Amino acid sequence: MPSDKRVQKIHHIHLKKHHKWIIGSFTSLILILMVTLSIFTYMIFVRQELHYKVFDKQINELRLETKSDIGSLSDGLISIKEELKQTSSQLGIIYEEFNYLKASVGEDFSGIIETVISSVVTVKTDFGQGTGFIIHDEGFIVTNAHVLADSFGGLAPNIRIITYQQQIINADFVGYNSTFDIALLKIEGSPYKPLNLEDSETVQIGEKVVAIGNPLGLQFSASQGIVSAVHREGLNGVNSYIQTDAALNPGNSGGPLINKKGLVIGINNFKVGSAESLGFALESNFIKESVNEISSKALNRILLN
Question: Which residues are catalytic?
Answer without folding.
Answer: 146, 181, 253
